[in-house]
């Protein structure tokens, strides 16, 4: 009887905890995700296309540029991102032989534009949608240091000022020393239409996420494509994308304004608390039954 009760307890606990995990907020998007070997046997991808100087190393990563001057490459999704809410997490690596001067950086895109080589981190200017720039070289003086991550919401008409590193049109940004790190460097971009855009980075230590950008009341065009691009000028670096994992967000509770931490749903917290109470109650009953059985066994 005791073993049966323990089995029942463990089954109940697993079920409750599993239900809690399934309350989560996202659906995996294979159409916007990339992992080794990146391409099929015919050297193609069903979901992404690439061009310029981009090279696919099937078990090492997607190299947008080599560590050589005057190179540019891009990687672009063939399918549009979800209209209302999505999250893209990607691992990247920026490194090279330069120890003092290097550049120029790479960009993450969620725009209406077709893939095309251009002057803005390897892609086109006057884009329509989100441009997120991982800039490693300062073309002018600023009050902040480089490497620097900045966001611009393009309207299809406004130009990105390369000479001023996009500062006149910058919607938000942060200093982030992501170049040449000895552990995986990552970024996570979360978007909910008409609510917010959030960017978190992992560059200080593995597994530690740092807040970078939070923008309220953001609305991108309904049809945007996921993309990455990079370029080098007289100075250079390797710019590599190692993996991309995308999700469509189901839960769109709006976080508070930065720099406050992301809001946790109180209803979900109370629900989880009640589940823990239920597990504890069942565990207590099992312990009571076990003690009763032990006393009865001693009598006889």
TrEMBL record:
Residues 1-21 form the signal peptide. It is found in: Membrane. InterPro entries: ConA-like_dom_sf, Intracellular_Lectin-GPT, Lectin_leg. Pfam families: Lectin_leg-like. One of its GO terms (molecular function) is D-mannose binding. Keywords: Membrane, Signal, Transmembrane, Transmembrane helix. The chain crosses the membrane at residues 272-290. Its main location: membrane. This is L-type lectin-like domain-containing protein. The keyword Membrane applies. The lineage of its organism: Eukaryota, Fungi, Fungi incertae sedis, Zoopagomycota, Entomophthoromycotina. GO terms for cellular component: COPII-coated ER to Golgi transport vesicle; endoplasmic reticulum membrane; endoplasmic reticulum-Golgi intermediate compartment; Golgi membrane. Coiled coil: none annotated. Residues 26-249 form the L-type lectin-like domain. One of its GO terms (biological process) is endoplasmic reticulum to Golgi vesicle-mediated transport. It is a single-pass type I membrane protein. The keyword Transmembrane helix applies.
């Amino acid at each position: 009887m005791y073993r049966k009760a323990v089995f029942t307890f463990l089954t109940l606990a697993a079920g409750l905890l599993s239900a809690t995990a399934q309350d989560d907020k996202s659906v995996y998007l294979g159409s916007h995700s990339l992992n080794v070997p990146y391409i099929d046997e015919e050297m193609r991808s069903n979901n992404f296309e690439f061009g310029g100087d981009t090279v696919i190393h099937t078990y090492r990563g997607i190299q947008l540029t080599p560590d050589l001057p005057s190179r540019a490459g891009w990687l672009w999704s063939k399918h549009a991102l979800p209209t209302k809410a999505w999250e893209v997490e990607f691992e990247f690596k920026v490194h090279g032989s330069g120890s003092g001067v290097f550049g120029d950086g790479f960009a993450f895109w969620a725009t209406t534009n077709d893939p095309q080589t251009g002057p803005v981190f390897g892609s086109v200017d006057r884009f329509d949608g989100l441009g997120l720039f991982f800039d490693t070289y300062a073309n002018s003086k600023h009050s902040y240091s480089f490497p620097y991550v900045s966001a611009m919401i393009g309207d299809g008409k406004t130009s990105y000022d390369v000479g001023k590193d996009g500062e006149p049109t910058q919607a938000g940004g942060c200093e982030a020393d992501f170049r040449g790190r000895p552990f995986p460097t990552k970024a996570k971009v979360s978007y909910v239409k008409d609510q917010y855009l959030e960017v978190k980075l992992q560059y200080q230590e593995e597994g530690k996420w740092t807040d970078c950008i939070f923008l309220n009341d953001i609305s991108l065009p309904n049809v945007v494509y996921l993309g990455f691009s990079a370029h080098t000028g007289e100075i250079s670096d390797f710019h590599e994308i190692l993996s991309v994992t995308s999700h469509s967000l189901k839960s769109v509770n709006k976080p508070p304004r930065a720099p406050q931490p992301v809001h946790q749903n109180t209803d979900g917290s109370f629900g989880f608390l009640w589940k823990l109470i239920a597990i504890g109650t069942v565990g207590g009953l099992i312990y009571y039954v076990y003690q009763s059985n032990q006393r009865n066994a001693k009598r006889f």
